[in-house]
Amino acid sequence: MTELLAVAPDERGLRAALETVRFQSGVDGGRWRLVDLDWPIGIFAVSAAARPNSPSEYGLRIDLSGYPQRPPTATPWDLGLNASLAADRRPKGPRAGHVFRTNWEHGQALYAPWDGRGLNAHSEWAQDHPADAWHAERDIAFFLGRVHELVNADDYSGI
Question: CA–CA separation, 31 vs 55, rounded Å?
Fold first, then answer.
């Protein structure tokens, strides 16, 4: 019990979210998985629809500081190289390409209302996109689910 109390509230919140049915059903369904957690950074993999010459999953390096009050910020991640995902290896398609763009924040965040940097840069997104915007009642499964939806949509074209 003392060990649990030594863990900061944001880390405790994330670790609790990783145990929820919502997160675990994504893991069990092959939609995402936790690769590594070295607080406050989590490395996750999100499965993608099969497309020619494209990966079966994409990595995300997510800064979870302040979780869930502060929105997570994800950097597209090369799981093999343990480095930022190269521009030519990022998901393409009208929506996925827009979110995984490299010409915003130097490609170090997702251009989306569920990503901390996107939401902080565009405070109007919370009101304009309430179904997609991060707020403190959201969890990591919501974040990963939005990414999973993008890379499994009909308009996702692979890399």
Answer: 14
Q: Phi/psi at 89 (nearest 5 deg)? A: -110, 5
Question: Which residue do the tokens 């170090």 mark?
Answer: 108
Determine the average pLDDT of the residues in 41-70.
Answer: 98
Nearest-5° angle of CA 75, CA 76, CA 81? 110
Annotate 29-82 with DSSP letters as a single string: TTSEEEEEEETTEEEEEEE----TT--SEEEEEEE-TTTTTSPPEEEEEETTTT
Which residue, 120, 110, 132, 134, is CA-closest to 59? 110
pLDDT digits (tens, 9 = 90+) for 82-125: 999 999 999 999 999 999 999 999 999 999 999 999 999 998 99
Three-class SS state of 134: coil
Could you please state the CATH topology (level 3) that the domain comprising 2-150 is classified under: Ubiquitin Conjugating Enzyme (3.10.110)
What pLDDT band is residue 35 in, cutting at 50, 70 and 90? Answer: very high
> Tell me, what amino acid is at 24?
Q
Q: Show me where the domains of the chain are located.
A: 2-150
β-bridge mates for residue 87, sequence order: none
